[in-house]
Amino acid sequence: MELLDNEEGLSSNNVDEVKVTINTPLIGGLPDDISLLCLARVPRRYHSVMKAVSKRWRDLVSSKEWLHYRRKHKLDETWIYALCRDRLDQVCCYVLDPTSSRKSWKLIHGLPPHIVRRKGMGFEALGNKLFLLGGCGWSEDATDEVYAYNASLNSWVQTASLSTARCYFACEVMDEKLYAIGGIGSNSSDPHSWDTFDPCINGWTSHRDPNIVPEIEDSIVMDGKIYIRCGKSPVTPHVYAVVYEPSSGTWQHAEADMVSGWRGPAVVVDGILFVLDQSSGTRLMMWHKKTREWIPVGKLSPLRTRPPCQLVAVGKSIYIIGKELSTVVVDVGDIENMGRLMVGSSIPKLVSDYNVISCKCLSI
Predict the structure, then answer these.
(1) In the beta sheet, which residues pair with residue 228?
(2) Quick one: pLDDT at residue 18?
């Protein structure tokens, strides 16, 4: 371990010393591939401690190799990230480790201060990064700025800008690409457009379709397609949805029977669409594809869920996250066979008066 401890102090003029450092094993006496096999099994909550051991360990834990290895061998762990707005009307970001025995939300520091009052920002996870996109303010028009939070490095940086300035738009990930769709833009922006971000080229590509409308209310990815629930249009007085077909690259109107029950935040678990209807209490609904009907799964106490809520799924569990980050966990793993709701643990709310804007999951 002496070489590991001293590697920060090596002189760049001493070639022999540099070679020794480069070849220093991750764990003394073991080949690096065996060391990786061992280290990759350390729980995610200890990764920050591992980065303090040495520069080689820090670089490994922060690398794409580490992320790919853990995902390939199903060692990755999913944490939940919540974008909130506090009583001072400022945005903040919290993270929850569902496997932790303490089950508590923790504040993520370092959010760029000049964006904390923006509204209508997109919030999405791709790879090991969270993205905050666009947004606007009382004295600020829609912006094309994008900021990324690297969960491995615990840091925020500004990244490639959107092709179009957007505010109050849909944001989804599909096929390892990030989509920013519709919304309100500047006077020069096209509300019938969408942008796609490809991390391989670190750039955005702009597209257009007349079926996209500015009034975006919710979005999901299901069966390899993006669904967007829209507001009322000039043509129809009721809420409708559009669906993106990747094969044709076009947007079409979604089936009316499916859209009719989409009346709240939605999440997809194992290809099944669940919606939390908050119109009268809180009731979890499920879309049954074969019978083409909405089935009530169960009612939840509004005192526990604290609406308005957002939904995310980790495995076969739905996390219902409401005001003050109050959290209820619902197991839907065998819902089609059992036909009843399995409510799990509740996570205590925070003292502060937070409204949850959006929730996303990120796995490392």
Answers:
(1) 219, 242
(2) 36
Alpha helix ranges (H) inside 23-122: 32-39, 47-50, 55-61, 64-72
**Domains of the chain, with CATH numbers?**
2-72 (no CATH), 77-107+260-358 (no CATH), 110-254 (2.120.10.80)
Query: Residue 310 and residue 323: Cα distance in Å, rounded?
Result: 9
- Write out pLDDT tens, residues 86-118: 989 999 999 999 988 888 899 999 999 999 999
Of 79, 90, 73, 1, give the one whose Cα is nearest residue 39: 73
Distances in whole angstroms, Cα of residue 242 to Cα of each of 38, 51, 133, 251, 265: 46, 45, 22, 6, 16
Residue 300 host element (H or E) = strand 293-300
Judged by DSSP in three states, 6 sits in helix
DSSP codes of every residue in 178-223? EEEE--B--TTS-TTEEEEEETTTTEEEEEE-TT--S-EEEEEEET
* Integer Cα distance of 364 and 348 in angstroms: 25
Between the CA of residue 308 and those of 51, 93, 276, 311, what are the distances in Å? 38, 17, 10, 10
Neighbouring residues of 155: CB distance < 8 A, sequence distance ≥ 6 = 110, 149
Q: How many residues does the chain have?
A: 364
Answer whether the bond into residue 112 is a cis peptide, omega within 30°.
Answer: no
Query: Per residue in 181-237, pLDDT tens?
Result: 999 886 666 778 999 999 999 999 999 999 888 789 999 999 999 999 987 655 555
Dihedral angle, C-alpha 333, 334, 339, 343, nearest 10 °: -40
Q: How much is the pTM?
A: 0.89
The C-alpha R_g of the chain, in whole angstroms, comes to 23
Mean per-residue pLDDT, 35-45: 96
Cα distance between residue 83 and residue 107, in whole Å: 10
Q: What is d(CA 64, CA 152) in angstroms, rounded to the nearest whole number?
A: 10
Q: Are 93 and 140 in contact (CB under 8 A)?
A: no
